[in-house]
Design brief:
Order of helices and strands of chain A: HHHHEEEHHHHHHHHHH
Structural class of chain A: mainly alpha
Radius of gyration of chain B: 34 Å
Oligomer: heterodimer
Number of strands of chain B: 23
Largest sheet of chain A: 3 strands, antiparallel
Shape of chain A: globular
Mean pLDDT of chain B: 91
Low-confidence stretches of chain A: none
Distance between the termini of chain A: 13 Å
Number of strands of chain A: 3
Largest interface: A-B, 48 and 41 residues
Radius of gyration of chain A: 21 Å
Strand order of the largest sheet of chain A: 1-2-3
Number of helices of chain A: 14
Helix content of chain B: 25-40%
Helix content of chain A: 55-70%
Strand content of chain B: 15-25%
Number of helices of chain B: 21
């Protein structure tokens, strides 16, 4: 099956993946362009969004160029790097606190990026390397405990920020990798049980911050406080619902332009899309995600080793989970968490993460025939 | 290698199923809210962004017959506060200090439930510029408080004609269901009394509407659509400001004069001036009066209670149409005409007044007010000197004829039922008869029988007879107008915005009692004598206008005598009828007649001093 010349070059690129990422990126730019219409400094925000995409092409290219297999030997250093990365905003002079969370790395007053974003990619690599060691079959409690240990450290640190959203993304990444990595089904049952007990405990002993609890309460009973914590959810649903089938047209969403939608260019970007492009626009986005994830699954299936397949599984888990939680939040079937929508939400850190993940997928694809 | 990839296939498939499931759940949810429930959410989005506000139409003005304004509009600088400010102790305290207003009063204004729940409530009107400046400079300390210009009623002539004009206020529950007030909502300002109420439909105009697009903070972004308000129309009244002022001054002077003569309870009364040929009300005064400016911007509970307190003499009552009095001797013209018409009496028929009249038997003597008696006196003299005995005789004759002709004649002149004047709240007075007495005393069998004394009492305007000052004026106007009682009215015309009259008050004959020209002439001669050389002689001494009039002094149980005077002038070619009633003012000749002279002075450009009649005649 070896190919040479131009054919080889083409087969090095997974065309569907590149097309999907390009389409999603462009779609995101359009919706952010519309969402930032009329906002203070709106055009600046749009420029930053596009620049973020361009910056992301660098890690994409780097990840693509690197032979991912070499990363498998760096579990220890990568784990330490990840811990330091997540901790970095806590270092005096390097961090910034916004909305109760210390989640930005900044130097000399200039915001650089959110360390939790690259942490997702590093976690994917570390977990892939660890899980791959079991060669597709995990059942011993000791093995499970060891794998969980690698999750536990970054998880603990991210919850201390506190950034519950990213913590949940870490779990989703790990679970999808364990599914592909061969964890016996009964262990998933055990995890489910632990989750139920943990959630019960959290609610019982008031571990959550007030705003987190409010969000949960509102999710369960949105009518309880429509002008307080329930306001965002209610306005988001009104925006999307009022979009109808065809939407109100770009830059014509009243919920969006008249500021009824909070955080409309970031966490609630889908509400803008739903309002202005309607059901059709929403289905187009879901279709693009489906195509992206199918392309990714194809890359996973083509991987010549388990490590590569696991990396892809992690990326798929990240994207799927974030799409579910973010869109689910805007349509009222998920609690409100600050999880952005892949390729769509404004924010360069997450854009860079998505593009770095894409780079790894391309690396795996282009090396599917290698030795 | 192949083995490892085959093994993974099912796991990838599982992952794929999860992915598809997630996307399907989201798609279904989108379908639900964007297709199935789209309409409901679209409505909510519209409600979010669209605010509809009413544009108040400027209310029509009220003018006197010459077009001089009595009620106009002006913009008043008002301090408004959102209802929620009530819960902010700090703002309430600073607002109270700034406006020099008790916190309780501010609280009362803010808790008005008549306005839309979120609409700001006016707290203080006509605030000083220094307060406006202070609020502007310290905006941040007064969240929810704003200064705005609100249109309010302006009364360029103060309290003048307050009872005729009436006042406006927030619509009440009962008014909401009134026939002519459809389309109003709570919080709307509406005429409550007087002309403001009577001509509400023309004064009000049509509200406009403006649909605004607002942002999440409620700030208007743009106007979506607008229907302009149509200003209310101006109402021109038949009142003459100068005569009205003269009438009010005459009434006030009469009350002062009565008090000087130790009638300490003299605090209320009424004056009516009618154009006898048209029925136009030229002046209508009622005392005590009130200041319609108290109602501007909403009256406080305290002020309202004060205006309605027992012992306040109820200043909101327009006594000219809402109070009925025993007409006393002023009624003798009715008894007299009825007597002439039935042939019971003649102009020069002789009577003998011994002071004490015992025709109904020694057990039931009646006294003439002149206890020493008038001696031999004609019917003409009976009117001139107001001799009771003459009218006891006539009344007794009516009783014996047993046909209740006297009452029927009184009713034929319009007594006993409202005149139908275009003012709200008019009462009809009472012309009692046997039927009425039986029903009235249903529970007191011993008082149910109509007695000779009942008719005799009516004959001198006492007993259970009651008339309003306006009714009395209409009757005297009728005498002056060849026997035709005109419909009294206050509306002259309604003006279009360009000043042309669209509705005009009309002069119609309300009652045409059967009176022969000869009988009428008899009565008019007698009334002229009364002012020239009779009971009103003192009051009209030196007045170079011939006036025909009749004094009256009503006895009211438990009260001092009520002074009355009814007249028309000029006597030979009458133009106006004047009635003065002074509650507990003493004698008609001494108190009411001089007041009527003042009013006539104002009407004909004569001296308008209150003359001291020193006349105890009745």
């Amino acid at each position: 099956m070896r190919q040479t010349g131009i054919g080889r070059a083409f087969s090095a690129v997974n065309i569907p993946l590149v097309l999907c990422v390009t389409a999603l990126g462009a779609y995101g730019v359009i919706v952010v362009w519309s969402a930032t219409f009329g906002m203070a400094g709106g055009s600046g925000l749009l420029r930053r969004h596009v620049v973020g995409f361009a910056i992301g092409l660098v890690p994409l290219a780097v990840a693509w160029a690197i032979d991912y297999k070499k990363l498998a030997g760096w579990v220890g250093p990568l784990s330490i790097l990840n811990a330091l990365l997540i901790l970095s905003p806590r270092i005096p002079g390097l961090g910034e606190t916004a909305k109760g969370a210390t989640s930005w790395l900044q130097v000399a007053g200039i915001r650089l990026f959110q360390p939790s974003e690259p942490a997702k990619i590093i976690l994917i690599v570390v977990m892939a390397a660890v899980i791959a060691q079991y060669k597709g079959s995990i059942d011993k409690p000791r093995d499970v405990a060891r794998i969980m240990g690698y999750l536990a450290l970054p998880m603990l640190l991210i919850l201390l920020q506190p950034d519950l959203g990213t913590g949940l993304v870490f779990i989703a990444i790990t679970m999808s990798m364990l599914l592909v990595g061969g964890l016996k089904p009964r262990w998933f049952a055990v995890f489910a049980l632990i989750t139920v007990v943990a959630v019960g405990g959290v609610l019982r002993f008031n571990v959550l911050e007030q705003y987190q609890e409010d969000r949960l309460v509102v999710f369960v009973d949105p009518a309880r406080d429509p002008l307080g914590a329930g306001y965002n959810l209610a306005q988001s649903k009104i925006a999307i619902g009022s979009g109808g089938i065809a939407g109100k047209g770009l830059r014509s969403g009243t919920q969006s332009n008249l500021n009824f939608l909070p955080e409309r260019h970031t966490d609630f970007i889908f509400a803008v899309l739903g309002e202005e492009l309607g059901f059709v626009g929403g289905i187009v986005l879901l279709g693009l995600y489906l195509a992206l994830l199918i392309a990714s699954l194809e890359i996973a299936a083509s991987s010549r080793d388990l490590f590569g397949a696991l990396i892809v599984a992690g990326v798929i888990g990240m994207w799927t989970f974030q799409a579910l939680v973010n869109i689910g939040m805007t349509v009222g079937i998920m609690p409100i968490t600050g999880i952005p929508l892949p390729f769509m939400s404004f924010g360069s850190s997450f854009m860079v993460t998505n593009l770095a993940g894409t780079g790894m997928l391309l690396s795996i694809w282009s090396r599917r025939y290698g030795t | 290698m192949a083995i490892f990839q085959d093994q993974l296939k099912t796991r990838f498939a599982a992952l794929g199923v999860i992915v598809v499931a997630v996307l399907t759940v989201l798609a279904v949810r989108l379908w639900t809210i964007q297709v199935l429930y789209a309409e409901s959410f679209a409505t909510q989005a519209e409600n979010n962004r669209v605010r509809e506000i009413s544009l108040e139409a400027p209310r029509g003005r009220i003018l006197d017959r010459e077009g001089r304004p009595l009620v106009t509009n002006r913009g008043a600088l008002a301090v408004l506060a959102a209802p929620s400010v009530r819960h902010d102790e700090k703002v309430m305290a600073s607002l109270s200090a700034l406006l020099d207003m008790p916190i309780d009063d501010i609280e009362e204004k803010l808790s008005s439930e008549k306005l839309e729940p979120l609409a700001p409530r006016p707290v203080a009107l006509d605030v000083a510029p220094s307060i406006v400046a202070y609020l502007a400079e310290h905006e941040s300390q007064f969240p929810g408080v704003e200064v705005a210009s609100v249109p309010v009623r302006e009364y360029p002539r103060g309290t003048l004609a307050a009872h005729v004009l009436g006042y406006i206020g927030e619509i009440s529950e009962e008014q909401l269901s009134a026939e002519d007030l459809t389309g109003y909502k709570l919080g709307d300002l509406v005429g409550k009394t007087g002309v403001e109420r009577q001509f509400e439909s023309v004064l009000q105009g049509d509200k406009g509407h403006r649909r605004l697009e607002v942002d999440a903070k409620g700030r208007p972004r743009r106007v979506l659509s607008e229907v302009e308000a149509v200003a209310g129309r101006d109402v021109v009244l038949t009142l003459d400001i100068d005569v009205q002022r003269g009438a009010e001054k005459a009434l006030a002077d009469a009350l002062k004069a009565a008090q000087r003569e130790d009638f300490d309870n003299a605090r209320a009364g009424a004056v009516v001036v009618l154009d006898v040929a048209s029925g136009e009300v030229i002046a209508m005064a009622s005392a005590p009066t009130y200041d319609p400016r108290t109602f501007v911007g909403g009256i406080s509970q305290k002020e309202w209670k004060k205006l309605n307190a027992k012992g306040s003499e109820y200043p909101l009552t327009n006594r000219a149409v809402m109070s009925a009095y025993p007409p006393a001797s002023t009624f003798k013209v009715v008894t007299g005409l009825a007597g002439l018409q039935t042939g019971i009496t003649r102009e020069w028929r002789q009577y003998y007044c011994p002071g004490k009249w015992t025709e109904m038997g020694e057990k039931w003597p009646k006294w003439c007010w002149e206890r020493s008696g008038h001696g031999t006196v004609s019917f003409h003299g009976g009117i001139q000197y107001s001799c009771d005995t003459v009218f006891y005789e006539i009344g007794y004759e009516f009783y014996k004829r047993d046909k209740e002709e006297l009452q029927a004649f009184a009713r034929s002149m319009g007594l006993g039922s409202p005149t139908g004047v275009d003012l709200p709240g008019e009462v009809g007075g009472r012309v009692p008869d046997a039927d009425w007495k039986r029903k009235f005393n249903e529970n007191y069998p011993e008082y149910r029988t109509w007695l000779p004394g009942d008719t005799v009492n009516i004959a001198i305007g006492q007993g259970d007879l009651l008339v309003t000052p306006l009714q009395l004026a209409a009757v005297y106007g009728g005498l002056a107008n060849g026997g035709k009682v005109m419909q009294p009215h206050v509306l002259r015309s309604v003006l279009d915005p360009d000043g042309t009259a669209v509705i005009e008050g009309t002069s119609t004959v309300r009652y045409a009692p059967k009176i022969s020209a000869a009988d009428l002439a008899v009565m008019r001669r007698a009334l002229l004598s009364a002012t020239h050389d009779g009971t009103a002689k003192g009051a009209f001494r030196g007045f170079d206008l011939s006036v025909a009039g009749k004094t009256g002094t009503a006895q009211v149980y438990g009260k001092d005598d009520y002074a009355m005077f009814a007249a028309y002038a000029p006597a030979n070619k009458p133009k106006y009828a004047v009635v003065v009633v002074v509650e507990q003012g003493g004698s008609g000749g001494a108190i009411a007649a001089p007041a009527a002279r003042m009013v006539l002075g104002a009407l004909f450009g004569k001296n308008t001093e209150f003359v001291s009649a020193r006349d105890e005649s009745r």
